[in-house]
Structures
1.
Amino acid sequence: MAAIYSGIYLKLKSAKTSWEDKLKLARFAWISHQCVLPNKEQVLLDWVTQALVSNYNKKHELEDEVVEKLWAYLDNVIHSKRLQDLLKSGKTVGLSFSVAEIINKRLSEAYSEKTQQNIGTVLSCSSGILSTSSLSIIYTAKCELLVDLLSKLSKLACQQLASDDAVGSQLFNVLHLTFAQYLLIQRQQANPNRVFGRVTSHLLQPCLLLRHLLTVRSWTQADDNHVCQHLSREIRSQIETLLQAGLFQPELFSSYKEELLSEQKSQEKKKGAWKTLLLPVNTVQTKLGSDLCEPALHGAVVAGSVSLLYKLFLDSYCKAENYLVCFHMLSRLFGCLRLSDLQEEGKSDLLFPVDWSVELFALEQLLSLVLSNDIYNVASDRIRHKEVQFGFYRKLAQLLLTHSQASIPAWFRCLKLLMSLNHLIVEPDLDDLVSSAWIDAEASEPHTKKPQEVLISTIFQTYSKLRQFPRLFEEVLTVICRPAVDELRPPIFSAGLTPKLRECLLELPPNQILDILCLFVEKCQALIIPAVEGSVDMALKLMSVCSVLHAFLFNMRSLDDVTPSPVVLRTQRLMANIQKGIILPLMELLQAPRREGEKSELWLRKASDAALLLVYTWVEVDALFGVSCSKYVSPAAETAVTEPAARHWGVSAFLPGVKDQSWRRVMELASSFASTSKYCLELLTLQKMKMMLMQTEADLQALQHAAAFILESGRSTMSRGESELWDGDISAITELSYPTAHWHLIMSNLTILLPYISLKDVEYIAKVLLETLMLAEDQEAATDQEPSISIAKISLGFIHSSLLPEMRVLHCAFLTHLIYQFAVVLPTAPRDSVDLPLQQLSVTSIPWHEEIMASCKTVDPLEVPSENKVQKDELSLSWKTLEKVAQCIVLLAKNGCPVMLKEPQLQRCLDLLEIVSLQKLDSFLPSDCTRCFLVLLSLLVNARASVSCSKLLLLKVLSTCLHLLRCLQAGRNSNSVLKVLHASDVLEAVMTSQLTACKFFTDVLTGPDWAQYVQEVQEFLENFLQMIIERRQSVKLNLEKFMSFLVSCRPDTGAAKSTDWKNWNPAAEQLLLTAFTTLCHVVTLHLQQLPEKKLHSVDVFCALLEPVVLQMVRTVEHGLQSSTPNQPLPVAFIPSVTTLLKADLSHPVKKDWQKEPSGFLKRPRVKLYQEFYSQILKELPCAGSNLQFLQLALQFLTVFCSVPELCPEKETALMVVFAIKKLLSGPAITTQVIRSMEMELTEVLVQVLGNCSDEEFYAIMRLVLQGLEVRNIWQQKAKEVLSAVTLTKLLLSCPLSGDKGKAFWFASPQIITALALQTKEACQDQALISIIAIPILETVATLLRQGEGILVNPHHVSLAFSILLTVPLDHLKTEDYHGVFLGVHEVLFSIVQCHPKVLLKAAPSFLSSFHRLVVSVMHEGRQKGDRGNMDEFEMILKCAHLVERMYTYIAAEMEDFTVFSAFIVAHYVTELQKVTLHPAVKTHLTEGIYHILDLCIERDIKFLNASLPAGVRQVFKDLYNDYNHYHKAKKQGEEKYTA
């Protein structure tokens, strides 16, 4: 045979053999052992590479199909197991450099042809070559080939990202691998100039373009998930590492310095200097030129690259002595931006808005780097460098202010950064800054408004600290008094700016604030007031000035008794000046008679707004000063005594100089505008009420008129139903935001208004509150991201607060309107509407809470006695109505005449029920609690869905009603319901109606909504029955009536005695079983809690319970017989049988009860339990992930297995464990499902193992060990392994004593060994990490903790380290990473805590395992360009906290481990030097390593300083200095005061 095949090589070389035959022969030769060729593998590799090289060198022109097959053959050979085995055995097999050349050439062709369809095989070849060390030498030995490959791959990746096609993973995986190989080679290069040249010539441009495209790409679902989430970030990180190491090596700094500083030295050139030095900055600038990429992308790529390059430059060279060099690098890189062109004279603004956004963002990042690295030192720049930096930033500021871009957030942020660098940079253009960035800026969008407020806040803080606030507001006033850029200027102080202004005003000297106020008042008197009439521009200026005065007066520090007298006197003069110089002239202007057409003019509206705002501000501040400062004399004090109107609280009582008649005209004018002026009138009226209430005798009539005026003022606008958001700024109220402001005022001051408004007004407020709540859900969805106020938010805030329950009149009225809305939803019944329960409960003529409402009525004191006489009769009327309604509901339930609702009506009911749930139901008064209970009961009993309606919607309505009924009966006034209803009637009405309603739900019994509904029924019945028992009133009677009702519902006859059910159905059966179960459970629990003195009651309750139990048995048997064969048991059956069994077992019994036929647990029932047990064991493995079924089934097994006598004769404990094992190995079972039912599984096994024999336990152990055999994972039976691992963990949770415990621990070494082998195999497949590796880690941790003092052989414990060193910690999904990390940590912690002696002998293994955790958390917790989602970051923080915990425990508890402390620190600083940690992660790790440093003695510190490499040594010194400064000093301070 050998002779036959030995001629293959000749045939391969022969020109006569067709290429098809050659390829077949080559494939056969590679796989066949019968083909004998000297050095066969190398020969075949040489043949295929030579064929490909000849084709690409044009020596032999081959067809495209043949070429593709040759590439495929080469790919198969490279990835074959045969080649890998040969290389592992040490045999030398290599490729020629020409292979790398043709791969690069093929990729280049693909890029130029703009098609990537046929390069998959080539990419696979290059991947195989690079990942095999003996083959990758063709690239690593010739670095230029690797650079060329990286350049080609980067360009191909850019091409793919720029297209509309879906992004695949193959190209990016190869690219990631190539970057990793190149970075290894780059670190080994000794010549930094050569590396710089190589990077700038071949890699800089494609890398920058690739990084940009990866950053800006909008990933879609079609794109590969691994590329989106992982590879894109990793490749960007690799690009940054490549550029950092290639362009900014320490050895290149002299070249940068020489080039950058030469600009300053007036062209001084050293002899021969430029011959040896590079021009690195010029080279980089050239590469950022027009040939970087296509013109459409060029600006954006350069903008993104400039900030990256500057960051990398600063990371490498930023030290105090290099700050000037760093600045010049900034100026050169800024020159690459298109913004720099605008500084040149004659250049026009050619940038589009999108370009402006990109350029300004880049500038923002550059300035942010300057600020964070402290490059600009004002004094040093002025003294040493002739303000070269200041001049640069000054030009930048002029550029920004000349080309205002108020619609772009980055523009504001750039100005803010310049302000932070030095306020003098923008000081010369302060007026332009105030105008373009504040007063005249159109920044209405939220994303723009926020940075604008931050900039203005910075300006405030800067000028406040400099005590130059008057200088700033001089400019503000100047800008205000200029002609407006737009007809309507935005408000000066937004809601976000006002708190910042307040902070500054509280720090300023009062005289400076008064200077500003006087300046505004004087300018207003001199310039604006004389010219305001008829001028829109002047009216707008007046509004701006008044809003500034309002903001200052409301936010400055108030006068008090410690305020210096000169300040008080000056404030008095200011207030008098405002009153006489501004307010009175404006009042004269507004009260002048005008024609109807003139009243709607804009100037008049604005003048009215400004005047009323200033009047309100003046009155409020004047009253405050008068109260808080005894030295303050109000200008109103001189005239208040002499004016007779003061006694009647006219306008002159608080605003001297204004007559009542004039004020009425002003009020009439202001009320015609739904804007600031109307709102200020309401505020003034409210202020008047407050002033009246401060008097010893309040004028009740005046208070009532004032409260009525406030409510009436906005009633018409509220009724329109049109409103928009309001930001809280009084000066910015518009016609659409006025309703919001008005409602906010009412709800905020309801405690003042409510005692003085009529019952009709109370009902009006309740009605509006309900209407706005009904619209709240839609409005909230639209305004969730807005910080502004909406009517819906106000109402929701009020309903959530504790105010409504305290306002009982309003609470009662609100409930009445709510019930009326329910009545409106229901269609008209065929009988008289008065009989309908909901309409009777919402009748306003019935005095529901007359004793509370009486305080709201205007009552003559002489009429009080007669009112009291009839009060009892009126109260009894409301309770009589409630009793009548209750009887009506019970009658409706018995007669079965439900109201049919359509889907919109049902949805409306559900919305109203949501509003009921928003209220604090426990705060209802007895009658309101009863009303609400009856409403919900009426809906439950009387409402049904039409045929076309959604059944799930009806289920949700019924579930919500039951839930709310349960909440009501859990409240403090739950007993009030039983004044009008018998408890048994409630239970019977609910069950009757629900059993009738069940006929609609026969086809939704498997859904979660039905399960939720049944759960609500069960909880309602349980709570209500519990309440009956706890009340101890007619307990026996109520229970007997309800039990007899349930017993009357007989499924075998097809109908109940008291109802007219024609067809029995499974839904009703489940509901009935739920009622039986709940009743038995509650009564059984009550019997168990009875004291010994009342044991006679047991027989009474047992006698009552027996017919229920018998009926329950019949229902279960009927249900089991009528159920469909091979269908799973209905979930409702399981708790019923469990409760039945518990009830039987709780009965007081004698010894050997099971042998007595007369015992309570009779033979037929034993048979039922046994059949049910067999059915459960049969269905358990098939349940999948149906968690509800699994939990209930396991609970039944727990009770059943607790009585071993119940088990059938042939059934053994092994069968239960086998069923559980089969369940755990099912395809639908996941680790999350196992965790959810772990408690129930443990309880079952506790009972099974506690009652089984030793032989059965040995069989169980054999079953577990069979599952742990490694052949299971070889046969791809991962779930078998998972079930065995889970069973092992569950066995550890069970109390094992005697021979069982000995048997388990005897097998424990075998278990640990098996787990180690399983881990090794599982970790080769990433998909098995979460399925097998994580549960194994959890089991090993538990095994080691439980085995403390039992596992005495150190070798067995040491096996755990092999598991820890096998489990991977990189390239994992987020959830898998946290699971693995936590598992490894818990195993280590178990060894540290429970096996310290083993730890000392295996210290190297422990340190290796722990060091892996440290390295991993440092890698994951490093600073990244994009932080990722917050959940992922929180997970990394938890992992860092675990590492800190381990460090702390080692330091505190393990004295013998001190000898290793220096090595632990060395490991830590070595890794720390490689990464830049996120501050939050670093905090945890640093706190931990400080505790290890506590263990280090002086000799260890010297050893570390001497042995660590230079870079690492510097990191250690910084760490040790921080340790001494922060941690050690704090520790010594604590020890000093410790006893």
Note: The chain has a mean pLDDT of 82.
2.
Amino acid sequence: MLASSLPPLLLLSLLRLPCPASSVQGVDLEGSPLSHLLQDPRSGALYVGGVNHLYQLTSDLRVSAHVRTGPQLDSPDCLPPIVAKDCSSATPTHNYNKLLLLEEAAPEEEGAEPGSLIVCGTLFQGICEKRRLANITELLYRTTNPVDTQYVAANDPRISTVAVIISTETRQEGAGHATGRGRAGMRLMLVGRGYTKGPGDIPPITTRRLFPAVPPRRMFSQEEELGKLVVGSYSEYNNHFVKAFVHGTHVYFLFYRRDMWHKKEYRTYASRLCLSDRSFYSYVEVPLSCDGGYNLAQGAWLGNHTGSPALFVVMSAGQASTPVATSRSALCVYGMEQLDAMLRRAQEVCYTEGGRGSSGEEAYIEYAVSSKCLKLPKASLVDYPCGGEHTPNPIASSVPLQATPTYTCTTHLSAVATATEAELTIAFLGDREGTLHKVLVHEDTSGHLYSSVPVHRNSPVSADLLLDQNQEHVYVLTHNRLSKVSVSSCEQQTDCGSCLSMSDPYCGWCVLQGRCTRKHECERHLLPNHWLWSFSNTDQCVTVERLQPANQSRDTQTQVTLSVLQLPSLSSSESLTCEFEQLLPSPAQVTGSTITCQSPEPHLLPATPPGTDHMILPVAVKFGHVTITTGTMTFYDCGAVSRLNQTSQCLSCVSSVWGCNWCPLDQLCSHSSNCPHHHTILNHKDSDGPSSCPLVYALESQALVPMGLSTTVVLLGKNLDIYTDKADYMCVVEIEGVQFNLSASVQKTDDHTHTFTCSPHQFQFEVSELQYSAAVYLRRGQRRIDASPGLTLQLYDCSAGQSDCSQCRAVPAEYGCVWCPGSPAPHCAFNQSCASAATDTCPPPQISQIVPLSGPLEGGVLLTITGSNLGMKFEDVEGGVSVVGVDCVAKAEGYHISTRVVCELQPSGKPKRGPVLIRVGPSASGQSMQEFTYQDPQLSGLVPEKGPVSGGTSLTIRGHQLLTGQTSDLQAFVGRQPCFIMEEVTDSQLVCQTGRSNRTGGVSVSVFFGKAERMVPNGDFKYMDDPNITDVEPGESYQAGGRRLLVEGSNLDVVQRPLVVVSVEPETQREVKKRRRRQTLLNAKQQGFNSSVNTVSELCVLESSSQMSCPTPKVSRQFKVKELWFQLDNVRVYYETIKGKSFVYHPNPKLYLLNRDAPDTPYRFKPGGVIAVEGVDLMRAMSRQEVRARLGDQECEVKTLDSTHLYCEPPEQQPNSLDHNDLPTLKVLMGNLEVDLGLVQYDSDSALPPVPFVAQIALGAGAAVIILSVLVVILMYRRKSKQALRDYKKVLLQLETLEINVGDQCRKEFTDLMTEMMDLSSDVGGPGVPLLDYKTYAERVFFPGQQGAPLARQLDLPESRRATVEQGLQQLNNLLNNRLFLTRFIHTLEAQQGFSQRDRGYVASLLTMALHDKLEYFTEVMKSLLQDLVQQYVAKNPKLMLRRTETVVEKMLTNWMSICLYSFLKDVAGEPLYMLYRAIKYQVDKGPVDTVTGKAKRTLNDSHLLREDIEYCAITLTVLVKSGVEVQHCPVKVLDIDTITQVKDKILDQVYKGAPFSQRPAADSLDLEWRSGQAGHLTLSDDDVTAVVQGRWKRINTLQHYKVPDGATVALIPRCSAGNGVSQVFQTGEKTPMLEGEEEEGLRLWHLVKSSEDPEIPKHRKSSMRERERAKAIPEIYLTRLLSMKGTLQKFVDDVFVAILSTKRPPPIAVRFFFDFLDDMAEKHGIDDPETVHIWKTNSLPLRFWVNILKNPQFVLDVQYTDSIDAVLSVIAQTFIDSCTTSEHKVGRDSPVNKLLYAREIPRYKQLVERYYSDIHSAASGCYQEMNSTLTELSGSFASEMNTLVALHELYKYINKYYDQVIMSLEEDSSGQKMQLAYRLQQVAALVENKVTDL
């Protein structure tokens, strides 16, 4: 990885988001999701770590340096350094940043950097590096060849890692990220990380070296003396770390995990260590509890609350009993003083009270280690505050530290930081939706939210939330953005009101500065009323309480007085001003809280706004340029009052609120009370002004004026005497903007009322409605006289809108409208305009339409009748409507005069059909032409019958006559929930969508037709639990889509139309977004864009309730994928929530034409080869199994696929073309992507260029001469050897045919085998592999072939002696834990003549049992004994060491390897070994197996090969299997020549497939019964009276013997009485001799071949010697069966060898450890011959352990083991042995057949072995610590399985046998004498067997 400076183009791509007017500014960065943020307190520089990227930024978010950290070639299964050829699983892997720490060097460190940045990622097993703080592109340290102790961070992005840096001398108070301020001495890094399956298990907390790191010390290494948290089970104690920090003299870790001690629920814990404690003696943890079920910590901050340190933790409620956090979150606060007290209490109780306090258990030992709470002296905690070697650890408190949530919310909180302002604690909380919440924390730790700031919408906030040095800004890290958010938004509030309404503890209004500021920013904040606090309930803004005068005419200037509340005090030299809007300020006089100033001069005021009669101007009281407070003053304009109301100017003027007066002679409205012509009408406030106005107040004539008839209008007026001029009056009528001026005559009455008679006029114009209102007023000359408001003429036209008689007659009588029957057609007219007599009655009603045309029998549906003459009022039709003879109740609210009647149908009782009748008053009835049908709709069924409880199921309800009533009358219900009708309803079905239900279970389905309800008969709809998706594979697709996603979950079958949906947005739109982000209205614009997001979807295919497959939707290149989800009806499941990462779409791969140089030329293909296709990114989102290739109309089988090549094997014959071309086209299909790669032409003889005719003649002649010569020679030879050729011709022919066909036979057999093995997939992986439990495994390995092994026995002692003997055995156990005693004891036994090799192995296994709980000690003793053994062999022949098991230590090594590799067998090698076993068994059983000799047709072992050609056929039996009360029929394939016992075994194999062998019944406990017809039951047996006897041979019965046909029905029944048939003696493949009874009778049993040295040869086959030789040669042909069997099994053999010898995953720690030990021994003794070390390693691991397992799978698996399987496995085991030798593998004609079989594979296997040894050797050493951790875990895991007392008792028998020799050996040793070993052994003897000693 090369660090480089930031390129200019990249700088342009990093989009900065400055928002000057906003409190949030940000910069977008690559490397999402960004994970860690750090700030250098000295320089203020920021550091951001993400995926493949590392950034350095300034405090104002400018990128100053950038480094790419990935992707790089890596694999979590391989150890660094990564070499592609050695790690096939290595792929370009993303580097997720896991740790970002600041390390500050001590000033005393000579030449040290001022500081460095520690960066750790997921690559290369989580190694770390150091970079220069000032420029992160400069690398200070990185190891190129890391050892296993340098693996720091978790190599899995999902697993947490935290760390803190400490110094041995000075420490750093950590809040946020830790830094170390070391002076001199040692600087360390404490790392907490979750559990990952990797190269060795790393403890949850480890100590890493930082300084000094002088060789051989390594930086970041985990060294033995530095300490770690030892755990018994890494997987069970999988801590999810959240925070690490230093406080006082301790370092703390915050994490959550499952509580393994109590309820197994997930809890959050805080743990503590002394800074000076290098051995972790002081480790103690306490659970943190937050009321309300908040149990999973998400983020934490060490801050202060009420002056004391406190830990602020954001916690989420876990989903059920899982570590999955829900969105229900809370902030919880824990005082550090209380936390420390709880931790000290747990220590004290565990030190001095055995873990139990007054309330019961208060403390215990955690992490499954062999320690326990003690009762030490009371002062132990005072004397040893950080623990010691004698104190118990690690300690956990049973009593949690309680807290009440400070703040709760329904969004997922993920981060917290706190600050203190004005002695108040403010918490900043980030959530998963990109919002920053601000919460005030009160003294009692309660809190309330006062502000929420959107930072980055829908982007989770990282747990790294930082405050800058001045605590003025919060740095917020989200998915791909770093934002800088002000702690307050004071500066955004521009006025006092908004400032104080924030209720923000940071903000207040600085009055004289006119700004919303923090307190210290306001100069006079100490003076009253100068700084008004936003958070105070008492402070309020400076306000104008009263302003006088409030209203003022704009035409005058006056003095204004303001009364102001909370006016700040000023000095004598300071003054205030008043400013009206933006006019020039005027000086203000201040008297107490009163301010006086002048209003502006009239000519300076702005114009009155159009359409209004006043304006309101702000009055600002200013201090300099700062506005202190603002009031308002109204300036009115009387002239505008009259102008705005031209119809009644006088009335509006004197009625206005402004005090305006009217001058009638001047037509003027003025504020003055003096008019120019001296006649003034005063405002209503001062007199009765409105009643004095000249006014036309009423109409004397009728207001109703018919159209087309000459009419005279008469008006009444008053107060008109004031007009003395001689002007004429005119009546004005306005109709649609047209004025009609009518001359008027005036008549004055005694009461001064004036009557104006307007000249007659005939009004005529078209109107759409009956009536039109026309304004009417009076004018005197040019002066308009006021008219009363609402004075209008009502012009009307009877014919407008009255289309029929009923409508016409319904017009009110005052209008005088009548129905006139005149020409050209009857019409509605004014009575005086009708030439003929008006009609008194109307015609009968007419019905034009009825809706709907059908209804239910129960009625209840509204019927709408439209037509004409349907009555003049509702009462005319009330009770007059009937439908098919049934009354229909009319509804008043639906009635329209004459045109529409709405009525409600009444029940009919039975189906009917007929017209609708309507009767209007006494007139005749009207009848509809349409017929209405009363019908009985019925529901018949529904599909589907179940759906999710969240709803969304498209439910199809079937029936007939469903179109009853209108669609709007239909309502469907599922239970009580409405089902929303989605599609058009047909007569036979309706489709609706179910709603959400609050419970599961069956509910009825009903449909309402109006008020008529119909139920689906026997058709409950069942609400099921919502579908749940647990896994989706794969996680990538090409843009073309079509890749099959395998979705696993539960309840998937409840969904009707499962969809996979992808939301996309145009790429161009993204660019628009980026440009718009620069604008201030960021959020609003983003919301606008969201509406344009599109989706594409595909329908999924359900395969079962737990599985479905979904093709990925196609996404165009112009779109960017946002997210993928599964739409399961109303349930939406996002891919990211399932997998924790986003689904990725990649650009489509490129595939090049076969003939790139000449695209139009066909590609020439030679049959027998493969076609190679080149391309780019072929495997980026597709595997070989998913790719298809088609050549014409046939498949081209894809053999290999990598990122750049695809190889496919076409058919042998050229396929036909699918189009118009003569040649086939090769097409590659990758999901939806189909690529045409060009034409393909097969090479053939016909394709060769033609040979010239002359050349043909010449070639023909030459060939004829050659052929003639050859024929002559052949004839001469045949004459001499004709007979020999004839004899051997058949042999040659058969050999040639078999050699050609064996390949095809292998392929066919392999295909059949793989088909069968696919059925095992459900059995394999986890409980499916029948692995033995550890106890049985250990018993079979430790004591092979022994019955009643010590593991299965109990101590057999009389009760009177038991206690004494057990005491003695415990003392013996203590002695065995003394290394000197143990080694002297072993050497003494081995020196005895009678101590046999069997005894040595037995004693070694007993010692293994006895010391199983102390495997570290056992290992050290074994190493010591092996060192002695090496010393012996070095002196003789070192290559012979460990070749056999001749010593105790060699058997100890075997047992040790077996213990350490059990988990490897279980997790890695067990499955391929089981698959190999099943493959062998399947292949062997497929052919004949001789039950007597054990020979089989299908085998790898030539000595067990059934060479004879046995005729047989496969048949299928139907086996009756009883399952509960049901009897099921199970087909089982057998051979007709199988013995009855073989048939029973095959039936049991099928019936109990996948079950352990020990759990199925034995074949000899069952009888096989053949059932034919009703009563035909025949019990079949290997031997009965029907058995065939020929001479002295008796044949075992087979199915063929009983003539059992194909398809016969059989049953296995329990055997009632034990017989002595063959089936009791001969089990398939068991080496059981002839029955004694048969032997006595002189009969020999046989099955397929007679096992005789000299088989009988029929007389007719006896011939010459040559014929007898041929008879021996012919069976050799069957040796090709070995080749066929080998080819068929090859994949499974390879899988086992690769599983054992692969270094793709780290080899078992025990292997690395022991090989390292052997290398050390070789180096120590000067053995530089690599072959010798190779032999040692081979003898210690492959030959000592793996060969044993390969030959005896029953040691590991609970399976049936037979001779025929043993024969095959022996060959495979021998091949494994040959592969581990260093000698060259040479084979010749005389080599054993077994070696010939694998001659080609052994060199390849040798390379595997050599690479395995080499990789382990080249890997750095230093795995001793890891080995010890593993041994500690193994000791605790399996020690309880060992029967220690029995082992000790058995060992004592050997002590007793060689008692004197052992005692003498101990007494001769000086060290033994000092330890009194002999004396202690005598004590043991005295207790165990009352032995008289010299005590």
Note: The two ends are 73 Å apart (CA to CA).
